[in-house]
Specification:
It is a single chain. By secondary structure, the protein is of the alpha/beta class. The protein has one domain: Rossmann fold (3-Layer(aba) Sandwich), CATH 3.40.50.150. Helix content is 34%, strand content 26%. The chain has helices spanning 9-17, 24-34, 52-61, 95-98, 117-138, 155-165, and strands at 42-46, 66-71, 83-87, 102-107, 139-150, 166-172, 183-191. A 7-stranded mixed β-sheet has the order 3-2-1-4-5-7-6, with helices on both faces. Helix 5 packs parallel to helix 6.
């Protein structure tokens, strides 16, 4: 429960089904629509705490796949051997830290909000831009990306940045998104070959 209110439908469902957070249903809806996650893939989850997107990805890629989660905070959820959550800074990732190329890069990162929509949206856009930079560096040709961003003036710039890397960029506001939230998800499909 949050601040004395009952959790909504998705929060209750997540708790009942043993998921780390309700956000798992956002990724599930995105994946059902675009079929991003498949058996045997390598998945990089940026801003992975509390672990619900990792829980979903681990089940989809199976034991022949690999899921690596990165967050500034430790993740308390437990995962099977083909998944690992590490404490690291997304601005300091390199091949020595996260290994070889990935099939899918996920980012559900959000800034600590300040209550000023414009400031929060700009900080969210900066995180999204860094996630796109990481995807550009570590995503295999043909790969996909999902990145969360708060609605604001930077979305067009982020879409333009993603269009340089991906054949197609889609937007979605999943049903599990809280009504008062301004978040949307940008989905990059079919990473172009690197120049």
């Amino acid at each position: 429960m949050t601040r004395g209110r009952d959790p909504d439908h998705f929060s209750r469902r997540a708790q009942k089904e043993g998921h780390a957070a309700r956000s798992i249903y956002k990724l599930e809806e995105i994946d059902q629509r675009w079929k991003l996650l498949k058996k045997g893939q390598r998945v990089l989850d940026l801003g992975c705490s509390p672990g619900s997107w990792m829980q979903y990805a681990v089940a989809k890629v199976g034991p022949t796949g690999k899921v690596l989660g990165i967050d500034l905070k430790p993740v308390t959820a437990t995962f099977p051997p083909h998944a690992e959550a590490r404490v690291a800074d997304i601005y300091k990732l390199d091949q020595a830290t996260i290994g070889d190329a990935y099939d899918v890069v996920l980012s559900d990162m959000a800034p600590s909000t300040m209550g000023d929509h414009k400031t929060d949206a700009l900080r969210s856009a900066a995180l999204a831009e860094q996630a796109i930079t990481v995807a550009d560096a570590f995503l295999k040709p043909g790969g996909a990306m999902v990145v969360k961003v708060l609605e604001g003036g930077e979305i067009q710039n982020l879409v333009a940045l993603m269009r340089r890397i991906f054949d197609k960029v889609e937007r979605l506001r999943p049903q599990a998104t809280r009504q008062r939230s301004t978040e949307i998800f940008l989905v990059g499909l079919t990473r172009k070959p690197k120049a």
